[in-house]
Amino acid sequence: MTSPTSSNPPSSREVWPSLAPYVVPPVAASAAIVPAFYDMVAKSAMQKGLPASSMTFKNVLQGVRGGFGAAPTVGAMVGTQMVLQGRVERALVKTFPNLFAEDSNQAKASLTLASSALVGGLSSPFLAVYNGKTMMPPWSVGESLSKFCLKQAGAITLQETGFVAGLATADLVSVPMKQMLGDNKAVEYLAAAVAGAVGSLVGHAGNTALTRWQNGMTVDSLRQLSWGSLRKARGNAVFAVVYKLGKEVLHSTVEDEK
Q: Which domains does the chain have, with CATH numbers?
């Protein structure tokens, strides 16, 4: 005889822990892009050789509104990247155990860079769509994809290797910082900001090339590749901090359910 409870639907306590790894990254990324989007719009203008808008209340408010508009795209994109990153890393460890299975910081760093490059390449069409949304006025999905080409994919791979690696290595960066500055939450979030900014700077040349190519422009000098770098680094630092906060808040609900 079947027990009365066997036909009951599973409770949130049973379902949420299994869903959290797939739900938390996109939700956290959707929230994180809102305060960072103003800087992303500014960096795209600067990459095209245009002046960035001044930081007035009206312009910041427009940036926040743009962030809400981009949130679904960014959430889906970064969430997929983070989930895919874990799967790619497990596949690389299984396929190349001599290179990546060793429990050392060098092996971990190599694994993160390799998986970030693969994830960046696979997600390049989605990144082209996102970068199109930072143009003024924002481009539609169809407009961004109609301009997409192989050299843009290469630029995006370079860009995303730095960006995804920055998000993935925030916890590793916090270890030496905690040793120097103390073991507390403030240092953890500072490490996330540093990792996000450094990851942005590493991949910025690729992002500048992408923006200029999308707009039918050429890259005429190495100096052009640095345009907008500090604005993008600041935006990515903000994104990384809010992303980390969002993940911790959402994951705490998993712990509360246990």
A: 20-247 (1.50.40.10)
Q: What is the spatial distance between Cα 104 and Cα 144, in angstroms, rounded to a whole number?
A: 41
The pLDDT value recorded for residue 5 is: 52
- How many Å apart are CA 196 and CA 39, to the nearest integer? 14
**Among 134, 147, 166, which Cα is nearest to 216's?**
147
Q: How many CA atoms lie within 13 A of 145 on its CB side?
A: 6
Closest CA to 224 of 240, 207, 241: 207
- 12-27 pLDDT, tens per residue? 566 777 788 788 889 9
Report CA torsion sign: 226, 227, 233, 234: positive
| Single-letter code of the amino acid located at 243 | Y
> Are the C-beta atoms of 243 and 27 separated by less than 8 Å?
no
Contact 44, 3 (CB under 8 A): no
